[in-house]
Design a protein that fits this description.
This protein has a single domain, classed as DD-peptidase/beta-lactamase superfamily (Beta-lactamase). Helix content is about 40%, strand content about 15%. It has eleven helices and six strands. Helix 2 packs across helix 4 and helix 3 crosses helix 4. The radius of gyration is 19 Å and the shape is globular.
Length: about 300
């Protein structure tokens, strides 16, 4: 059973706008696009949202979207007393989610798994290292969510690329690289934004994902708005997101408030160099969906 209710009208509209947007771009293949779109009512009686998807269960390389998983994992480690929260950990998670810091991500993966980067290793030590690095995948399976059971979230993120044992761990032809789906990413983001009840003894992950959409307020190192979903929305829209960008991918996972009675979760994966280089594709999708919501969702 899906974690949201299917709504046919939304699915029809999504296919229409995707066809329209992609048709203007010769080299765009819809097979390389994955989308999950869910609308939520703020009415307390509605526990699940209504939505639709395209290629949403297909696994892709997630780039920095994987940092949502690592953030939620750290939260759970703290809840279960596996990790003691301190200011350094809080700063690292904030920098990972707000600024997409790869250094902070490396530190947190070491903390979660008890592993460290370094020279290549062999034998029993190497087997133990690989076993420990799989701890995050084991935790995902333990959540019991069908949406994330095929995820592979065991690799660090890089400015340049992996070396030593990290490169070895990718396996031949990068067979062991991270992989996620838009569908499962939506489930993770829903958990962070919609279901977690935050308290003073743990991380306020939702706050770390909040973004000001005013373009003139952005600096280069904190831009996960321009060229992404946030750019397609009015500047005063309350908005939370985590983007992923590399040479062959441009992704975004976002949550925003349409009005006092409705909210939207939208995850879009664009795979391939054409998507990576296109800074208007994601804003066009979010803008079209925002207009649809304004016309079709009741305001209070």
């Amino acid at each position: 059973m899906s974690f949201y209710y299917q709504k046919e009208e939304m699915g029809i509209f999504l296919k229409e706008i995707l066809y329209k947007i992609s048709n203007n771009r010769k080299n765009f293949l819809t097979d390389n696009i994955a989308i999950t779109w869910i609308n939520y009512s703020t009415n307390i009686n509605f526990k699940k949202g209504f939505g639709c998807g395209i290629n949403q269960k297909k696994q892709y390389y997630p780039a920095s979207i994987v940092k949502l998983v690592y953030g939620l994992a750290i939260y759970d480690w703290i809840e279960k007393k596996r990790v003691i929260l301190n200011k350094e950990i809080e700063n690292a998670v904030f920098n990972m989610l707000q600024y997409s810091s790869n250094d902070a991500t490396s530190f947190l993966i070491d903390l979660l798994t008890g592993t460290t980067s370094g020279l290549s290793i062999e034998g029993v030590v190497w087997d133990q290292w690989k076993y420990q690095r799989e701890i995050i995948n084991d935790w995902l399976i333990g959540l019991g969510w069908d949406e994330v059971k095929e995820f592979n979230c065991c690799q660090k993120t890089w400015e340049d690329g992996p070396y030593g044992r990290e490169k070895d761990f990718y396996d031949q032809n990068n067979q062991n690289r991270n992989s996620m789906s838009a569908y499962g990413t939506a489930k993770i983001l829903e958990e962070i934004i919609h279901h977690k009840i935050y308290h003073q003894n743990n991380l306020k992950l939702k706050d770390f994902l909040f973004r000001n959409l005013a373009i003139d307020q952005l600096t280069e190192n904190e831009n996960q708005v321009k060229g992404f979903l946030g750019e397609g929305l009015p500047e005063k829209t309350p908005f939370w997101s985590k983007a992923g960008l590399m040479s062959k991918a441009r992704h975004d996972a976002a949550w925003w408030l349409n009005n006092q009675s409705s909210q939207t979760l939208l995850v879009v994966f664009g795979n391939g160099q054409n998507f990576a280089n296109d800074t208007s594709f994601l804003p066009e999708i979010s803008h079209a969906i925002y207009k649809y919501n304004q016309q079709n969702l009741a305001s209070s």
